[in-house]
Structure formats: structure tokens, C-alpha cells
Amino acid sequence: MTDKLTVTVLGTGIMGAAMARNLARAGHTVRAWNRSRAKAEPLAADGAHIADTPAEAVEGADVVLTILYDGPAALDVMRQAAPALRPGTAWVQSTTAGVEAIADLAAFADEQGLTFFDAPVLGTRQPAEAGQLLVLAAGPSDGRGAVAPVFDAIGARTVWTGEDGGEGSATRLKLVANSWVLSVTNAAGEVLALAKALGVEPQHFFDAIDGGPLDMGYLRAKTGLVLNEQLSPASFAVSTAAKDARLIVQAGEINGVRLDVAAASAERFERAAAQGHGDEDMAAAYFASFDEKA
């Protein structure tokens, strides 16, 4: 198989648009679709064909990549694409869909004769734009050559977690990783909120932990977005973080684990979204510590 593929990207939000651009820069033929066509249109300047429907987008595709809001959205869009899907096509499912939804997506892939890859990614806007995402992938070893050029274009590294994408091992790892990321993000916001309430200069806190085991680059990055009022454009939006936090809580409940911190994180993200911060970077969960916009 040639390394130059026809790749369809369904969903051109923060991550999908960056993936599509990097695929085009790598020399692949890119066909893109988004529910709101205006979000996909800028990709035409990068050489992508912008389709009006999912079915039009997947025509002639070697690989279909979905990166939509959630599992039900991915299934709905793929059902719309079904009339034009070719049996044997590789489906790279990168939506953070949750454990239960992966089984439904894999079942659809089986019905359509598609080769299913559970392939969520770790990273935000900047690594996505640089093609430096971490791809977490599960899928049949004999089909991996077909998707390797795609993963090479969008990511710096691929971690394979299993042979059967339908088992959702990659999605499970993504939820574990996201549980840490979302918890740290909210902890960072609460540090700033408490410092504000107690009249503590944030820099004094950073000086106190500087270079020690409590210091963390991610902490400084997220607090910096709040302190420097750089919450837009979002690297990872509050509304999406709220959705992912709920998926983490649900995964815990299904498996008999109570995740109090994840549940609190979901509530904070939802509260910040209700205050009008839904499209801002998830660091804006900081505002959930206040009754009104701080």
C-alpha cells in the first residue's frame, strides 16, 4: 500500500482541524466534514476537500477518522456516512467516547465491514497543531500498516494497547489519563481562588514550591492562562472537559469505583460553563470558585 492515502476527517473542531492540516501537509488527500461547514471551510486553503455530507466525505476514503463531541455523535455521523462506506475501510475512532459507547461503535464497524481502531489522543491545541499528539490505539495488528501513515502525521508517538479495538483498551487508558489532567486543572484553579480569597500573592506560592516535588510545568501553564487572561482561544474547552469528566465518573460507577474528585471536577466545569466560560480553556474552571465572574 502506498504511504499516501485518502483520509476523511469527520469533525473539524480544535483537534480535528489540526489533524486534517497535518494530514494534508504530509501529502495525504484530505476530505473533511463538519456539522457546521463554516468550521471546516478554512481547511480548503490547506488543500482539503470540504464535503457537504458525511457520505460525500467518505467517498473513496482509505481511512476515516472521527473526532466528534462524543460517542453518540460519532455513531450518528457514521450512520449518515454508511451509504458511501466501502467494506475494508479503516476507521480510526479518536472521539473521547467513553467505555460503553465504544462497544456500539465497534458493532457498527462490524456491520459495515470496517476495520475498527479505537484511537483517542492525548494532547491539546498546541501539540495537535504541531503533529505531536500521543496516539493511544487498539486494533488488529494485520491492519496497522494501513493507519500508520495517519498516526505518523498527527502524532509524535503511538502506544498500542490491544488487538481488539472493540474492547476499548485505548479509550480506558485515555479516561485514566484524563482523570489526572482534569483533576490537576481544577486543583490549579482552586489554588488561585484560595490565594485570592486569603490575599496571598500567587508568585509567593510558586516561589515556595519552585524546583521541588510539588512543582509542575502543567500547574504553571494552566495558572498562567488565568493570571495572564489568556483563556481564549481554548486549548481544551471547559464544555468538553465537563463531558469527559462525566464519562470518567460513569466509567467508575460501572466498575464499582467511586470517583469523588472526578465528580467534583465535572460539577466545577459545568458551573463554569453555566457562568459563560464554556468555550474558554478548561483552566477557566477557576471561576467556578466564585458566585460571579471574578
Structure in a nutshell:
It contains twelve helices and nine strands. The protein is an alpha/beta fold.
Q: Overall pLDDT, averaged?
A: 96
- Structurally, the number of domains stands at 2
Shape: globular
**Oligomerization:** single chain
Assign the structural class, choosing from mainly alpha, mainly beta, alpha/beta, alpha+beta, or little secondary structure: alpha/beta
Tell me the distance between the termini. 56 Å
Helix content: 40-55%
**Stretches where pLDDT falls below 50 for ≥5 residues?**
none
Major sheet description: 6 strands, parallel
Q: Any idea of the CATH topology of the largest domain?
A: Rossmann fold
What would you say the CATH architecture of the largest domain is? 3-Layer(aba) Sandwich
Strand content: 5-15%
Number of strand elements: 9
CATH class of the largest domain: Alpha Beta
Can you say what the CATH homologous superfamily of the largest domain is? NAD(P)-binding Rossmann-like Domain
Order of strands, widest sheet = 3-2-1-4-5-6
**H and E string:** EHEHEHEHEHEEHEHEHHHHH
Radius of gyration: 20 Å
List its salient traits.
alpha/beta; 2 domains; 294 residues; 50% helix; six-stranded parallel beta sheet; N-(1-d-carboxylethyl)-l-norvaline Dehydrogenase, domain 2
Q: How would you characterize this protein structure?
A:
The chain is of the alpha/beta class. The protein has two domains: 6-167, Rossmann fold, CATH 3.40.50; 172-289, N-(1-d-carboxylethyl)-l-norvaline Dehydrogenase, domain 2 (Orthogonal Bundle), CATH 1.10.1040. It is 50% helix and 14% strand. The protein is built from twelve helices and nine strands. It has helices at 14-25, 37-40, 54-58, 71-81, 99-112, 125-129, 144-154, 169-198, 202-209, 217-227, 238-254, 260-277, and strands at 6-10, 29-33, 49-50, 63-66, 90-93, 115-118, 121-122, 133-138, 155-162. The strands form two sheets. Strands 3-2-1-4-5-6 form a six-stranded parallel sheet, sandwiched between helices. Helix 4 (71-81) links the parallel strand 4 (63-66) and strand 5 (90-93). Helix 4 (71-81) packs parallel to helix 5 (99-112) and helix 11 (238-254) packs antiparallel against helix 12. The longest helix is centred in the middle third of the chain and has 30 residues, at 169-198. It is globular and about 60 Å long. The model has no long low-confidence stretch (mean pLDDT 96).
